[in-house]
Predict the structure of Ribosomal RNA small subunit methyltransferase G.
Amino acid sequence: MIATEEQARAFVAERCDAAGMERIEALVAALRSENERQNLVSKGSLGEVWQRHIADSAQLLDHVSRETGLWLDLGSGAGFPGLVVAAMQPEKPVLLVESRRKRVEWLTDMVKALKLENCDVAGMRLELLEAREAGVISARAFAPLEKLLRLSARFSTDTTTWVLPKGRSAAQELQGVSRKWQKLFHVEQSVTSEEAAILVGRGRAKT
Ligand SMILES: C[S@@+](CC[C@H](N)C(=O)[O-])C[C@H]1O[C@@H](n2cnc3c(N)ncnc32)[C@H](O)[C@@H]1O
C-alpha cells in the first residue's frame, strides 16, 4: 500500500519514462497554481497530490493491456485519471469527456502545454458524444455505477476494459446493478487507500 508522497512518486516513475515523469511534474505544478483560481480538486488533497490523484490514476494502467484502442475517460474534471494516463503513455489515444466550461478550458490548456498529441478533449455532456468504440472506459467520481453503465454502454465492445475507481462503495454498487452487468466486473483493491477499490471489467455492457 502506498503510504507517502515519496512512495506515490516512485510508483508513478516505475510506470513511465523520464519524459513522462517531467510531464506529470509539470501537470502537478500547473494544478497547484490553477487550483487558486478554480476548485479543480479539494484544497486538502493537494498536500497529498501524488497519492490522492496521480498514483491513484496511474494504478489503473496495471489493469489494462498496452495494446488497447481508444481510452475514454468520463467526467475527467481536473484530468483524473485520463490526463495522467495520456501524459504517462503518449502513444495511447485518450479522449477526455467533460462538460463544465472552465474544466474543459483547463484540460485543453494542459493538453497543449504538455504537447499531448494523443489526447483530445470532448467539451460536452457524455450524452451528446457521438458513439465510438472504446478499448478502455475509465471514470472516477463520475456517477453511480448504474447511471455510469447506462450512459456509457454504447461505447463498449466485447473487448472493452473498464476501470472504475469507486472508493469504499465499490462492492456495494456492484451488488446493486443487474446480474448481466455484475458478471462483467470484479473488485480490485486500490493501492492508494485500504478502504478504496476499483471495479475492473471486460466486455460489452448490454442495455
Ligand atoms: C466529481 S468530478 C470528478 C472529476 C475527476 N474524474 C476526478 O476524479 O477528480 C465529476 C466530473 O464529471 C463531470 N460530469 C458530470 N456529469 C457529466 C456528463 N453527463 N458529461 C460530461 N461530464 C460530466 C463534472 O463536470 C465533473 O467535472
Notes: The longest helix spans residues 18-34. The pocket of S-adenosylmethionine is lined by residues 75-78, 80, 97-100, 103, 125-127, 140-142 (CB under 6 Å).
